[in-house]
Amino acid sequence: MTLLVVFTAGCVSKQALTDRLVSAAQPAHLPLVVACWEKQIETDGFQSDYTASLDFTVEKKTSRILRARTRSVEPDDAQGRALAACVEEALARTTLPREADAEGPGFVMASDVEVRGYRIAFVGPKAETRERAAERQAHVLLGPRADRCQGLYQYAPPRDAATLSAELSERERKVDATASGDRDQHARELQKTYDTQLELRERLRLDAAHPDVPLPSQKRLLEAMQQVEQDARRTGALIRCEPPLSRR
């Protein structure tokens, strides 16, 4: 997702405001938008990538997104228009966090922010597609993979192990907290935990394969990777997923 142009009252520079909004509008803060893309995956099986351009307002008092309107969608076909309509509705039901949380920074401004031409790139999972998207735009957060059992995480290459380990602890805490509550929310937290486990497994594999890693450290990394894989299998069983085979 990338913000191309912003118009707002006040003295904050356009680039600073762009960076703040893009940082706050992480996929985890836009779950309804992500759900639109997941629905599209089920519909066309990643037959196309899409880019939607939207206008909207972020309300100063609440950080709610108001008056979301689609400018364009590419390619402009029936699936793209359906996706854009879903995203438009999803944004209209979204409130950005005003304070930082485990998912990213908050967004607070002294006046309403009028946003023009906010481009959201819904990008497929292929490595070459990811690379082209990253080259084309400075702030691209990639769409989920076609098969949720492959992991829906959006980072390629995986983030560092320390970041992922901390995130995994928070994910597991949220799984426990939602176990006796809303079943949909609990299922979403399980999916996020599973995604993080697969991403951490891949990071540990890459770290262990690095030629400069001494053998004792390599052994510890591989043992940690195997433990994470076991954990992913347990989580996967709860969401009816069999984790993909790891590359050794």
Question: Can you put this structure into words, describing what you see?
Answer:
The chain is an alpha+beta fold and 248 residues long. The protein is 48% helix and 15% strand. A hairpin with a 6-residue loop joins β2 and β3 (65-74). It starts with a strand and ends in a 10-residue tail after the last helix. The model is unreliable at 1-11 and 136-146 (pLDDT under 50).
Topology diagram in text:
Elements lengths: L1 E7 L5 H11 L6 H14 L5 E9 L6 E10 L3 H15 L20 E10 L4 H10 L24 H18 L4 H27 L5 H24 L10
Antiparallel strand pairs: 1-4, 2-3, 2-4
Helix pairs in contact: 2-3, 5-6, 6-7
How would you summarize this macromolecular structure in one to three sentences?
The protein is an alpha+beta fold and 248 residues long.
Calculate the terminal CA-CA distance, rounded to whole Å.
33 Å
By oligomeric state, this entry counts as single chain
Strand order of the largest sheet: 1-4-2-3
The best one-word shape is globular
Number of helices: 7
Query: In what range is the share of β-strand residues?
Result: 5-15%
Please bin the fraction of helical residues. Answer: 40-55%
Number of strands: 4
Radius of gyration: 19 Å
Order of helices and strands: EHHEEHEHHHH
List segments where confidence is low: pLDDT < 50 over at least 5 consecutive residues.
Answer: 1-11, 136-146
Q: Give a short account of the largest sheet.
A: 4 strands, antiparallel
What does the average pLDDT come to? 80
**Would you tell me the structural class of the helices and strands?**
alpha+beta
